[in-house]
Amino acid sequence: MADAATHTATATNNCGGGNAKKAFSLFADPAAALASARHEFGEHGGVNMSIEASATFTVMEPETMKRMFAGELGPDRDFFIYSRHFNPTVLNLSRQMAALEGTEAAYCTSSGMSAISSVLLQLCGTGGHVVASSALYGGTHALLANFFPKACNITASFVDINDMQAVESAIQEGKTKVLYFEAVSNPTLQVANIPELSALGHRKGLTVVVDNTFAPMVLSPARLGADVVVHSISKFISGAADIIAGAVCGSASLMNKMMDLHDGPLMLLGPTMNAKVAFELSERLPHLSIRMKEHSHRAMVYATRLKDLGIKNSAQFGLMAVSLGYYETLMSCSGSSTSSEMDEDAKKRAGISPGLIRFSVGFVGTLDQKWSQFEKALSKFHETELPNKS
Ligand SMILES: *Cc1c(COP(=O)(O)O)cnc(C)c1O
Fold first, then answer.
1. What's one Pfam family here (predicted)?
2. Structural domain contains residue 169
3. Is 111 in the pocket of ligand 1 (CB under 6 A)?
4. DSSP H or E run through 119
C-alpha cells in the first residue's frame, strides 16, 4: 500500500520527485528508496498501474486548459496535456528512477544518448565548455569531440579523472560549465572518485554530471555528491537487451527547465519515451537489485578464476555482441566496436588496447555449467590461436 506521504508533490516539482528530497535523506540505500517510492495502482485496482497509452489528454473546462499552459496546473496534480511533455506512465518510471538515484526528480527519455545530449545542451549553451573523462563510452566521446563543436560550439577537454590536478587545470574559469564522467567507465571499468571530483567541481562552480549506466544500485553518484545522474536504461536496468531507453536524474528545477515549453531541450528536441516501454521497464526495476547482485557475484568469480589461470584477456565464450547488462554473457572487442568512434590516441589514453575484450557476465544457467563451457572455449582458443602466434 502506498504511503500517503509519498503522494505529496510541490507545484514546482513536475518530474517525478515528489518527496524524493525526503527519500534522499531517509534512504541511503537505493533498494530501500525504490521500495518506498509511490506505488501506482491500476485503473481497476490492479496491483500494477494501468498503461496510459494516450498521446493527448481531455480537459473539461476551457479555464483549466489556460492554467495548464500557464504552468499553474501540472502533472504533480494529475493534469496532463500531451505525452511529449508528460505522460503518467512515463512519470511513474521517472519517480522510480529519482528514488533509485536519490535525486529530487528524474525524466525518462528514448535513449541514453538523448538523456546525455539534452542535459549537456541545457547546462552548457552555445560556447560552453565541458571537462570530461578520457575514459568515456564511445558515443559520448563522439558527441563531445565531434558533434557539439560542429553543431553548437560546445567544446570539451578530455582528462584522466584520477589526476585531480589535471582535472583542475583543464577547467577554464567562466567557460567550463560541466564536469562529466562515468561512475564506472565503459569499457575499462575505471571507478571514479565521485566525492572528490564532486567537491572539486563544486569549488569551481561546475555542475557535476555522472553517467551511472554501469553501476545502478551499486553506486549512487548523487548520494556521493554529484548533481546530475544520467543513465542508459538499455543496459542493466532493462536487463533483457530488448529496449533502448535513458534517464536524467537531478533537481526538480533542472528537470523543469529541460521541460520548459518555450526553451527546454527535452520538450523541444522531443526524445520522448513511449508509455508502453515505460510500463515494461517499471516492472523490471523491482528485481534490479537481485540481478545486479548476481551479475556482480558471477563477474567476481570469473575475474578470480581468470586471474588464477594467469589470463588477462580471453575470447570465444558467450554471445559476441555489443551492449551489456543482459542475462546472457555478452562479449565484445571494444576497440573495434563500441569505442571505435575514438581515434587511436584517444583509445590509448582511455586504456583501450586492441585486444581488450569486455565481458558482461550474465546470470542464466548455473555458474559451474557456464564456467566449464568457458574453460572449454578457452582451451580451444589456446590450441588454435597460440601456436600461430609463437
Ligand atoms: C550504452 C551507453 C550509453 C548510450 O546509451 P543508449 O541507450 O545506447 O543511447 C551511454 N553511456 C554508457 C556508459 C553506455 O554504456
1. Cys_Met_Meta_PP
2. no
3. yes
4. helix 112-124
Q: Ligand 1 pocket check: which of 218, 232, 237 to mutate, most ligand atoms within 8 Å of Cβ? A: 232
* SS3 per-residue string spanning 342-387: CCHHHHHHHCCCCCCEEEECCCCCCHHHHHHHHHHHHHHHHHHHHH
For 347, list phi and psi in degrees, rounded to 5.
-65, -40
Question: In terms of residue numbers, what domain contains 355?
Answer: 288-389
Residue 284 CA to ligand 1 centre (angstroms): 18
* Residue 286 CB neighbours (<10 A): 12
pLDDT tens profile 70-127:
889 999 899 999 999 999 999 999 999 999 999 999 999 999 999 999 999 999 989 9
Q: What is the pLDDT of residues 237-273, one digit of tens each?
A: 999 999 999 999 999 999 999 999 999 999 999 999 9
CATH number at 384 reads 3.90.1150
Q: Is residue 109 assigned to a domain?
A: no
**Which tens digits make up the pLDDT trace of 59-72?**
999 999 999 988 89
- Give the model's pLDDT for residue 26: 64
Is 186 touching ligand 1 by the criterion CB < 6 Å?
yes
Q: How many domains does the chain have?
A: 1
Residue 367 within any structural domain of the chain: yes
The Cα–Cα gap between 22 and 40 comes to 19
Angle between helices 88-101 and 275-282 (to 10 degrees): 40
- Cα 172 from Cα 186, distance rounded (Å): 26
Amino acid at the residue 224: L
- Count of C-beta atoms within a 10 Å radius of residue 35: 13
Q: Verify whether ligand 1 is closer than 6 Å to residue 234 (CB atom).
A: yes
Q: Give the H or E element holding residue 26.
A: helix 20-26
pTM: 0.90
Q: Is 99 exposed, middle or buried (0-12, 13-18, 19+ CB in 10 A)?
A: buried
Within a domain: 195: no
Q: What are phi and psi of 360, to 5 degrees?
A: -110, 100
What atom of ligand 1 comes closest to residue 115's alpha carbon? 9
